[in-house]
Amino acid sequence: MDQRARNHWRKKALRYTVYHMYKAMAEWNQREVDFLTRRFALDRHHEDEMRLFERVVKLTLRHIEDLTGNIEELERMEAKLTEELQQLEEATVVLVDDISAQHELNRLHREAIQALDSAIAALQERRRELERTHRSLTLIERQQQQRKQALLLSNEQLTQRKRAVLKRKEDLQRRIQQECMKASSNGAAVLYHQTDHAGAHSLKAHGVDMSRCRSIGWGNISIPGFFCASTEAITSQPDKAQRRGWMVKLQVRLGRVRELHTGPSPADGDFDSVVIQTNTGLEFVVTRAEQVTVTEIYPVGSR
């Protein structure tokens, strides 16, 4: 190989070496730049971290100061809580005593409840007995109601009878007024009694002698009575007068009048005269002599 060729290869080798050296230096420089760049960035980051750390330290110191104040406050609170805890312990002792007393009271209540259960059972049995009694009483009440209805019906019938009796008495009073008192001016009834000549003159002279009069023989009446009638015709009937021939005209104060078969008047049962109503007139029986006044005597048929 000639010299030119060798120089050419030497130059080429030198250029290759210089190129690679330059390339290696460029790469090293680039790595150095990158390292410095990273180092600079790291330094800046470190500065930021330092500033942040300083702020954190300041905040920590401030927080420590706050914690110191909080610790003092907590110590005061601890003392207060200790005192309250002691009070709670004392209250707990009292509460335990109260619970013990309540337990004893509950025991007494349970015993009372058991007694009440027994009483309730007895009351339920009593209630069943009362229900049975109530059913019996209901039956009795029904029977009493039926009796009451019967009594009401009887009272209505009795009221009707009383009304009939009152009407009969009113009719009797009107009949006495019409038949016996229309010719009298002093309120006495004008009546007639038939007897014989001696009896008529004895009545005229001495009045009525009740000891010689027959007893009233109607029902439960058993006292002496003087018989007279509202008309002369009644005294002339066969079964009326025992002695005949003379007529005695009388003025009679009837007083309290009782009609036979209708009950006493007034209500206590006392009476002065008894009256019997007939189709031909009224018949009377007088119980006291002072009720009778003889006004006139005359033979029967002379008028």
Overview of this protein structure:
It is a single chain. The protein is an alpha+beta fold. It has two domains: 1-141, no CATH class; 181-299, Phosphoenolpyruvate Carboxykinase, domain 3 (Alpha-Beta Complex), CATH 3.90.228. Helices cover 63% and strands 13% of the residues. The chain contains three helices and seven strands. It has helices spanning 3-180, 197-206, 232-235; strands spanning 189-195, 226-229, 246-252, 257-259, 273-277, 282-286, 292-299. A four-stranded mixed sheet has the order 2-6-5-4. Strand 5 (273-277) and strand 6 form a beta hairpin. The longest helix is centred in the first third of the chain and has 178 residues, at 3-180. The termini are far apart. Keywords: Coiled coil. Residues 57-175 form a coiled coil.
Domain module count: 2
Taken from the alpha-carbon principal axes, the silhouette is rod-shaped
Give Rg in angstroms.
Answer: 74 Å
User: How many strands, which pairing sense, and closed or not: the largest β-sheet?
Assistant: 4 strands, mixed
Strand order of the largest sheet: 2-6-5-4
Query: For the terminal residues, how far apart are their CA atoms?
Result: 229 Å
Low-pLDDT residue spans: 262-268
> Into which percentage range does the β-strand content fall?
5-15%
Counting helices, strands and paired strands, the structural category is alpha+beta
**Quaternary structure state of the chains depicted:** single chain
Helical fraction? 55-70%
- Topology as a string of helices (H) and strands (E): HEHEHEEEEE
Q: What average pLDDT do the residues reach? A: 82
- Count of helices? 3
Could you give the count of β-strands?
Answer: 7
Coiled coil: 57-175
Keywords: Coiled coil
